[in-house]
Automatic annotation (TrEMBL):
One of the record's GO molecular function terms: RNA binding
Gene3D superfamilies: 1.20.5.110
Gene Ontology biological process terms in this record: translation
Organism: Rhodotorula toruloides
Record-stated family: Belongs to the eukaryotic ribosomal protein eL13 family.
rRNA-binding in keyword set: no
Name of this protein: BY PROTMAP: gi|472587440|gb|EMS24939.1| 60S ribosomal protein l13 [Rhodosporidium toruloides NP11]
Keyword Amino-acid biosynthesis included in the entry's annotation: no
InterPro entries in the record: Ribosomal_eL13
GO CC annotation terms, alphabetical: cytosolic large ribosomal subunit
Length: 217
């Protein structure tokens, strides 16, 4: 008497609807106008810049420090200036972008040095800024009087006002005797203990003054 062994087939190994003769050549999408579109976009940018008049092709960017300890030693170009920086330079936030100054509403000034640096950049930009009136002969508030279009224009604001170096390297020198005798570990431990015990020592001094006043009475 014989027995029949039924072997089960794994469903995941079966290729369902295995149509291997698809006419993919008629379904693929191709485009060959990339070089022409690139040229068209370039011509459109040139025409737009010509209609805009004499203005820099790039906006003025602030000098900001990147996040994290690894990169915050250098300066890079940021997204836009803060309202505090614009206020320090005497520029209204609503008219800033119209004269080539972007505004970043999210960034905050964390240091006086960074605020001062960007205010100086804005003041230098404002000193060289020439605003032509919309209509010839009708000078309004904010326009430059006696503006002449024959004045050579700056093509790039970033090239005219580059981002300064984040830090200056210290020149090598010999170590002094005071620096050799200085113990950095002990100084840090003492500063830490002073900060931790400031409240305890203040309370001790208060009690001491109260006892002296009580003895005088």
């Amino acid at each position: 008497m014989g027995f029949r062994h039924n072997k089960r087939v794994d469903p995941s190994s079966v290729l369902h609807r295995n149509h291997f003769r698809k006419d993919w050549q008629s379904r693929v999408k191709t485009w060959f106008d990339q070089p022409g579109k690139k040229h068209s976009r370039r011509v459109a940018r040139q025409e737009k810049a010509a209609k805009a008049g004499l203005r820099p092709t790039e906006l003025l960017r602030p000098a900001v420090r990147p996040p994290t300890i690894r990169y915050n030693r250098k300066l890079r170009a940021g997204r836009g200036f803060t309202k505090a920086e614009l206020k320090g330079a005497g520029i209204r936030a609503k008219e800033a972008l119209s004269i080539g100054i972007p505004v970043d509403h999210r960034r905050r000034n964390r240091s006086e040095e960074g605020l001062k640096l960007n205010v100086e950049r804005l003041e230098a930009y404002k000193a060289r800024l020439v605003v032509f009136p919309k209509k010839a002969g009708k000078v309004k508030k904010g326009d430059t009087e006696g503006a002449d279009k024959s004045t050579p224009a700056v093509k790039s604001a970033q090239a005219a006002f580059p981002i300064p170096a984040g830090m200056t390297a210290e020149q090598p020198r010999s170590i002094t005797s005071e620096e050799k005798e200085f113990n950095a570990y002990a100084a840090l431990r003492k500063a830490r203990s002073d900060a931790r015990l400031v409240g305890v020592r203040a309370e001790r001094e208060r009690k001491k003054r109260e006892e002296e006043e009580a003895k005088r009475k």
